[in-house]
Amino acid sequence: MRILFLGDIVGRTGRDAVIAHLPDLRRTLRLDLVVVNGENASHGFGLSPSIARDLMEAGADVITLGNHSWDRKDLIGYIDQEPRIIRPANYPPGTPGQGSVVVTLVDGRRALVVNVMGRQFMDALDDPFRAATDILSRHRLGVTVQAAVVDIHAEASSEKWAMGHVLDGRVSLVIGTHTHTPTADHRILSGGTAFQTDAGMCGDYDSVIGMAKDAAIARFLRRMPGERLQPAEGEASLAGMMVETDDATGLARRMAPLRVGGKLAPTTPDF
Ligand SMILES: [Fe+2]
Ligand SMILES: [Fe+2]
Predict the structure, then answer these.
(1) Suppose 251 and one of 106, 116, 183, 192 were both cysteines; which one would form an S-S bond, judging by CB atoms 3.0 to 4.6 Å apart?
(2) Residue 160 belongs to what domain range?
(3) pTM of the model
């Protein structure tokens, strides 16, 4: 299965870039499954139902979330009607929505997508390792699902590496989100799971993690509440990771980063 994961989509420039490029990418890279993180798609904070629909129309099969899941209140009622939008699985029981989804591709193959959130330097939540392994205990990679993708939305690289090792051999890809900074450490772990600490963001990199520089910098310079943060509006870079898996095992065969447009050096997978 040919899978593309795109990191946190930030604001209008980020989602415009995704909507502009994704239909072509789906075709030229012969993608079977596209997963995007949408927690910052609505003006940097949350995901509105209409933007979720636009992203899915452009070719996103599943949208994952994170600590900004509930910034848009209109998503709270919508998420239970749209199973292809998932929020971290380790929110407390009773939280709206689901932390995982199985999507069936046009050719009948099935893919599991899971979203969990880290606990280091983030809100207190249930155990993300237990949440992920609980979900995986209900599926068999290569048997009931041909691929499985886990988005670990977390601040600490250590927690993300640990998640990669805990799930190694049990999923196709463990990929980090939330730091909005693509890491160059993508590799296939010893058990066959593709891993990257952070996918990066789809947004304007002439910014502070996607937000306009002045207000974001002012928060560091003067420890006072100031101007509201606004997304930067320059040309976005898409940042993500492509993985090709073996359907019989669900494990990764090869992986390569994707970066298109904006300030980042471009790169396109050559397989
Ligand atoms: Fe984010
Ligand atoms: Fe986040």
Answers:
(1) 192
(2) 2-260
(3) 0.98
